[in-house]
Each structure stands twice: as C-alpha cells, then as structure tokens.
Design brief:
This protein is mainly alpha-helical. The chain has helices spanning about 5-15, 25-30, 55-65, 75-80, 85-110, 120-160, 170-185, 190-215, 240-255, 255-265, 275-300, 315-345, 360-380, 385-400, 405-415, 420-455; strands at about 15-20, 35-40, 40-45, 305, 470. Mean pLDDT is about 85; it is low at about 1-25, about 25-30 and about 470-475. It is found in: Membrane.
C-alpha cells in the first residue's frame, strides 16, 4: 500500500458525519441520524448500538483487564517450575513478543479498515481458507477456552469464599449464568464501565496478596509447626515438559491479541491505539513480575494454585471476595469478543447488524448463550485451573495471537516490496523469528500441558465436586 493509499485508508476509517437519514438509509431500515460509517459495522446510527464509542481510557482499562485476571493467578507456579530468575526472564521475553504483536494489531487495523479480528487477517493472508482456519482456532482458543478458564476462576472464588459450601460443579454453573448475563452487554463502550470495577478489584486483590504473604510466619500450605524449608530455587532444573508448560502459562496470561483487535475496531480514535496498548502492556508486565516474584520468594515449594491460596484461609477468602468482579469481567470480555465475532459474521452487510431489530436481538442472545454453554462445558471437563491455563496458552496463545501478526507484517511491509532496505530486512528477520517462536511454543507447550494433564490423573475428574480453591503446586 502506498503512502497515499495508506493516508486515504486512515481518512476513510476516521470519517465521522452526522446527517439525517437519506432515502437509501430508510430503504435499509435506518430512520435516525447517521453518525458514522464503519467498514465493518456499516452505518452506525441512532437506531442501534454505537460500535465506535470506546474512549482511550476505556480502551486502556479493557486491555489491562484482558491481560490481568486469570493467568496471573498461576504465575507463581511458573516461578516454582523454572526458578526465580528464569521466571522473570520468561515473562519479559514473552511480553516483548506480545507487545510487538499487539502493536501490529493497530497497524493492521489502520491499513485495512475492513479488518475486525484475527480471522480477517487469515482472509488477507490466505483468502477464504485462511479465514476459516483461523476462525476455528479463534473460537476454540483465546475466546471460548479462556472464557472456560474464567468460569473456572469464578467457581474457585466462590468455593474459597463459602469454604466449599457446595459441590464445585454447582459453582461452575452459577459462574456460567453470571457470564451469560455480563457477556450479553452489547458494546465495548458499555463493557468499559464495568471493566473499571473489574480492574480495580483484581489489582486490589493482587496487592493485598503481595502485602499479606510476606507478613505471614509461613505459607498456609507449609507445616504449621516446627522447621520448614521453602526450597527456593533461583535457577531450577525442570523437566522439558514442566518448563514448556510454565512458558505456556505465561503465554496464556498475556496473549489477548484477538481481544485487542475488537478494542481497536470499536475505539473512537484508533490512532490512539498504540499509546493505550503500551500503557496497558507496561502495567501488565509490572504486575506479572511483582506477583510472581513476591509470592514465590516467600512461599517457595508451598505455592498454592491459584495463588491466593498461599495467603491462608482468611485472607484467601478476602482476596477472592475482592477479586470476584475482576474475574467475572475477564469472563465477560473474552466471551463477549467470541460472541461478537459470530454475531458480526452472521449479520455483516445487513441492516440488522447496527439496528435494534428483532433479528438483531435474537442473533445476539443466541451467540452469547452458545459461547457461554461451550465455555461451561470446557470448564467442567478440565477442572484444574493451572492445567487449563497451560493447555490454552499452548494450543492457541501463540498460534492465534503471535504467528498471524508476524505473517501480516511480512505481507504489508516486505513481500512484494521492490525497495527493500536494511531496516526492512531486519524487520523481516524479527517477524520471521516471532512466527517461528510461536510455532515452537505451540508444539512444545502442548506437549508439556498434555504431560501435566496425564500426571494430574484423577484430580481432574469431569464435573468434579472437589474443592478447587487452594491446591498446592509442589514439584
């Protein structure tokens, strides 16, 4: 794309107008003022939801909430598996890759205004075959599987708060119902208001955990009398499977790229996307390192999974009580994006996408209900939180998030470019490295996660009633 074409694409994407509905608009079913034309949603008008109303601050809070909430609860387990220093290094290296891939999301959206999600990237790269392939991976992956992880996290919180008052399967079902209600919120602009509550609650719970654990005489899972050994490892010597499983957990914690596409698509000012993304990435990286380092340093081999179990029964209940809105909003964000993909694809090009018609609402609730039901089944089928996090990160975290963005950079900046420079060659080398690293982590991480699931044995029974709020992750 030439510089002129690039500028025209920006102009087309940002063109905002407010006018009365024309005869053509009324023939399409629109009656109110047309506020904006979007390449994905069509004419956004007063008769329907505003799919381009997300503010910069709202984008930051949703991005941050998408990355801080689920995987971070298993990060101390990663430190235990690989050691303190390698744990920090793994987080930083993966975050560098994810930040670059997230930056590429914004660049892709500006160059190609008709792109709504990573599945459209597949279409740009390999036509209909690429679109369908990534559609399947996308729906199974960062959205539905992560939504399943979020349902499991909410059930864990309910177990902790109630002292396992009833069967875990009941709490999983309650979490699914709550998820359906939140997922059915129509636009990310509306979701952003609740995301404030979710982000504040999860950050407050994490900070409480970081403060309380060092003040304890010993971790909750350690022997409560007599001497005890943290067995702290600055550098551990894990098996290949354990190391790859730990890396996959970090990928799970940070691979929110499909959600970032949706955020970029609904922002009022997509030019602000990169600034918002860098702020959220900085916050997420700081909290990942802080939580992992502090909890593992003070608990060692007695780290609990999820991490709040390390704080003892009372503070575990308090932490989970504070964190529930944040965990619920993680479920909302990921299930919402999955449902909206199906919704947009079903109604794209029709008046029903951006207008509150009967078909509009029936399709929307069918999408949110379907995604929630599938996520509920996933959560019930793999009821071990750390294992599910690792498996999702391995199977789909890089394959759906990182690999397509490496190829997209090559398509837009290198392939077919007759004026290649040293800068473009270096950029191509980096994009190729990101792609190959993503493939390696997909294959290796899946192996490690499967081994972990086999080793879990009967601890992962389907529709289990067992308490899932504080298992100890001893090696």
């Amino acid at each position: 794309m030439s510089a002129y074409d690039h500028d025209k694409a920006h102009e087309k994407y940002h063109n905002v107008e407010v006018r009365s509905a024309s005869s053509d608009d009324r023939e399409k079913g629109f009656t109110g003022n047309v506020k904006l034309h979007d390449e994905v949603f069509g004419d956004i008008n007063e008769d329907g939801p505003n799919y381009r109303g997300l503010s910069d601050l709202g984008a930051i809070v949703i991005m941050t909430k998408a990355m801080i909430g689920l995987g971070i609860l298993s990060i101390p387990f990663v430190f235990m598996a690989v050691g303190l220093v390698p744990g920090i290094m793994v987080i930083i290296m993966i975050q560098i890759m994810m930040t670059w891939a997230n930056w590429q999301v914004g660049q892709t959206k500006l160059r190609h205004p008709d792109v709504w999600g990573v599945t459209d990237v597949g279409r740009k790269l390999y036509g209909r075959v690429g679109e369908e392939f990534l559609s399947i991976a996308f729906l199974l992956s960062d959205m539905i599987f992560i939504a399943g992880s979020a349902i499991l996290a909410v059930s864990t919180a309910l177990n902790a708060i109630s002292l396992h008052a009833t069967c875990t399967a009941v709490f999983v079902a309650v979490a699914a119902v709550l998820g359906f209600a939140l997922t059915s919120i129509k636009t990310l602009q509306e979701v952003s208001w609740l995301s404030w509550v979710g982000a504040i609650s999860i950050l407050a719970a994490l900070l409480m955990m970081v403060v309380v654990v060092p003040l304890q005489d010993r971790p909750a899972a350690a022997p409560q009398t007599g001497p005890w050994d943290k067995d702290l490892k600055i550098f551990n010597n894990p098996s290949v499977a354990d190391a790859l499983s730990g890396v996959s957990t970090v990928v799970f914690s940070t691979a929110a790229i499909p959600a970032f596409f949706s955020i970029a698509a609904e922002m009022k000012n997509p030019h602000a996307y990169t600034r918002c993304m860098l702020i959220s990435e900085g916050l997420a990286t700081a909290f990942l390192v802080l939580v992992g380092t502090v909890i593992y340093y003070y608990c060692g081999q007695y780290v609990a999974v999820p991490a709040p179990g390390s704080a003892g029964v009372l503070f575990k209940r308090i932490c989970y009580g504070i964190a529930i809105p944040g965990l619920a909003m993680s479920l909302c964000i990921y299930a919402h994006v999955a449902a909206k993909y199906i919704f947009v694809r079903t109604l794209r090009g029709t008046k029903h996408l951006a207008t509150n018609t009967k078909r509009h609402w029936i399709t929307w609730f069918s999408c949110t209900g379907g995604v929630t039901i599938i996520a509920y089944i996933i959560a019930s089928a793999i009821p071990i939180f750390s294992t599910l996090c690792s498996l999702v990160g391995a199977l789909f975290g890089c394959f759906v998030s990182v690999c397509p963005m490496g190829l997209m950079w090559l398509k837009d900046n290198y392939w077919g470019n007759p004026n290649k420079t040293m800068k473009s060659h270096l950029g191509a080398a980096w994009a190729g490295f990101v792609f190959l690293a993503g493939i390696f982590m997909t294959i290796g991480g899946t192996y490690g996660s499967v081994v972990a699931m086999i080793n879990a044995g009967s601890a992962g029974q389907l529709w289990s009633c067992a308490d899932n709020s504080g298992s100890v992750a001893t090696s």
